[in-house]
Amino acid sequence: MPQPALPNARVQGGTRVFAIVGDPIAQTRSPLVFNELFLRHDVDAVLVPLQVPAADLDTVMRGLMRIPNLGGFVVTVPHKIRLVEFVDEVLPIAARVGAINCMARAADGRWRGEIYDGEAFVAGLRKFGRDPRGWKVFQAGAGGAGRAVAHALAAAGVARLDLADVAVERAAELLADLSRLYPDTVFRFAHDAPADSDMVVNATPCGMAAADPLPFALDPLGPHALVADLIMKPEQTALLQLAEARGLATHLGRHLLDCQAEIIARFWGALP
Amino acid sequence: MPQPALPNARVQGGTRVFAIVGDPIAQTRSPLVFNELFLRHDVDAVLVPLQVPAADLDTVMRGLMRIPNLGGFVVTVPHKIRLVEFVDEVLPIAARVGAINCMARAADGRWRGEIYDGEAFVAGLRKFGRDPRGWKVFQAGAGGAGRAVAHALAAAGVARLDLADVAVERAAELLADLSRLYPDTVFRFAHDAPADSDMVVNATPCGMAAADPLPFALDPLGPHALVADLIMKPEQTALLQLAEARGLATHLGRHLLDCQAEIIARFWGALP
To answer: Which of B45, B19, B20 is nearest to B269 (CA)?
Structure first.
């Protein structure tokens, strides 16, 4: 029998198992990204997709969390908020955001939850030489990922954050929270991107479906503005296509996922 | 990003997931064998090891069985008997043996359980050109796998089956069951392998540990006798080493596993 060359091609008895839980799950790129990462670092681990219907979340998670060689989860739609209650310890950003996107089993068996969307988004910017320190940023969307990104941008030292959301109260709550934590940063509620924005970020789901309208207009922006989208599928959203057509720099949603895999794998203790 | 060449090196969102459940689990060869099989048949599926402590069996299995893209299980020690109660339908051999070694989710969502140890053992013999039809066989061990093997040997048309077990009642019960089902075959209780045996089979756990005594003596056997062991680790048990030293043909435990993977993968609907 030939020995396959790739570590996760030969998942074996001692291989550490990780899972992404969500519903639907077939569209997720996470297994590809994580398994490629394990492969690159020669780590004997595999990440598998597990479809977990919302109605069965309790039953399934109570079961999965008792499997000793299953060391961690990536948490995706629609479980990010409900799974906060399942972990023994909610880490700081997750506590503020009210959502987790990953769970790790600590050495003592306790489960910890955190959300790394924001940290990974900022890491992705920096990977392309774009440090947001001092930037004026416009962001649409204050949902789970949006909140995490806003917190991370504030922590990264943006000078100003203009926030738009159809749910005004949700946005106001986030702005108040951020203002308390980062008194030197300007936080404002906005409807449209100001002309002097250094970056505009789409943190709404607008753009996942082909028929979606644009999440916001690009008309006011100057030529130096960076247009970022958190959406991963399609990779080239209508917003990013329009930005390119106008000669603006763009930043893809998948950079977040690529950076996040490393951050989460370290959180699991699966990477050195 | 380079595209890994092997299908299960790139487990992705749509990959079908299967699991082997047992405790301990790190020693199992099943993931290697199944994943190599999926690879060879270009099937987008992966089998992962899941350690399931006996104390958590209910909680874990109730959870796992609700995951729609988890289509089947290999069941190993110590869960083969208890999981019989978890399936909606117990297939014929499992019902007779009182144990299952695999579970499959049917199209209607119902779970079915069967034990294929015996069928796989006979398939392994045939793969090496050894059809047991008409053979006189001595077998030690009437536990779960032993019962399955005895049923399969009877179904394959052996002329005589001599059965040894330290638990005499268990052996007697199996012999009575087999005698009813196969009235043309001779079934006897035995302590030692008769000199005219065509094959002797070790279906006891004796030989897994280095300090184990031999499960039975090879002294009475003629030169044409085949010595088979169901033990997979170590691959070369003391029994098989002694047989080789005496010039007798041997049959390894792993042939059962190799054949079983195909049979079980078909039971899952994962192989064409």
So the answer is: B45
Under 8 Å between Cβ of B122 and B128: no
What ranges do the domains of chain B cover? 7-115, 118-256
Taking a C-beta distance cutoff of 8 angstroms, is the pair A54, A79 a contact? yes
What distances in angstroms separate CA B241 from CA B194, B202, B245, B255, one per listed residue?
Answer: 20, 13, 6, 17
Structure-token pair, residue B2: 């380079």
User: Residue B15 is nearest to which of A49, A64, A70, comparing CB atoms?
Assistant: A49
A contact test, residue of B12, B29, B105 with most A CBs within 10 A: B12
The CA distance from B73 to A82, in Å, is: 28
Superfamily assignment of B118-256 in CATH?
Answer: NAD(P)-binding Rossmann-like Domain (3.40.50.720)
The number of C-beta contacts closer than 8 angstroms across A and B is 146
**Class level of CATH domain A118-253:** alpha beta
- What interface predicted TM-score (ipTM) does this complex get? 0.85
* Residue A80 bears catalytic tag: yes
Cα–Cα distance for residue pair B116/B126, rounded to 1 Å: 15
At B34, which helix (H) or strand (E)? helix B30-40
Report the SS3 class of residue A99.
Answer: coil
Residue linked to tokens 């006798």: B225
**Architecture of the domain whose range is B7-115:** 3-Layer(aba) Sandwich (3.40)
Judge contact between B20 and A20, C-beta under 8 A: no
* Cβ within 8 Å of residue B183, ≥6 positions away: none
| Contact present, B111 and B87 (Cβ < 8 Å) | yes
Sheet holding B16-22, edge to edge: B45-51, B16-22, B70-75, B102-105, B111-114, B89-90
pLDDT band, residue B9 (cuts 50/70/90): low
From B12, B48, B63, residue closest to A11, measured CB to CB: B48
Q: Are B34 and B47 in contact (CB under 8 A)?
A: yes
Helices (H), A162-250: 168-181, 238-245
In one-letter notation, the amino acid at residue A202 is N
Note the pLDDT tens digit of each residue in A220-246: 999 999 999 999 889 999 999 999 999
User: Fold match between B7-115 and B118-256?
Assistant: yes
pLDDT reported for residue B249: 98
**Which residues in B lie closer than 8 A to residue A44 (C-beta atoms)?**
none
Residue among A6, A53, A67 minimizing CB distance to B4: A6
CA torsion sign for A106, A265, A261, A53 is negative
